[in-house]
Amino acid sequence: MEFFISMSETIKYNDDDHKTLFLKTLNEQRLEGEFCDIAIVVEDVKFRAHRCVLAACSTYFKKLFKKLEVDSSSVIEIDFLRSDIFEEVLNYMYTAKISVKK
């Protein structure tokens, strides 16, 4: 946590923990199905997520969402990826952590 005071007496605050808490809260919401507005189906496995997170982390999803009319009941099927791999990528988007086998 940092505070900055400039010559104009403006106090600036920088919370380094905010981004960590933000990701943690979004991931908790995803895992509980709260505020999820998209479902991605991969190999018959359904993953709930937030479009804004997917679009922010992936140009593929950003372009897809711009092209398609999607709403909170939208389901998108992906047939070019295994479900276990998509799950790892999705978890990375929400946690900034990933496990990859050699």
UniProtKB/TrEMBL annotation:
One of its GO terms (molecular function) is zinc ion binding. It is found in: Nucleus. Coiled coil: none annotated. PROSITE patterns: BTB (PS50097). Residues 36-102 form the BTB domain. It comes from the Eukaryota. The keyword Ligase does not apply. SUPFAM superfamilies: POZ domain (SSF54695). Pfam families: BTB. Its main location: nucleus. Keywords: DNA-binding, Metal-binding, Nucleus, Repeat, Repressor, Transcription, Transcription regulation, Zinc, Zinc-finger. GO terms for cellular component: nucleus. PANTHER family: AGAP004733-PA, TRANSCRIPTIONAL REGULATOR KAISO. This is ZBTB14 isoform 7. It comes from Pongo abelii.
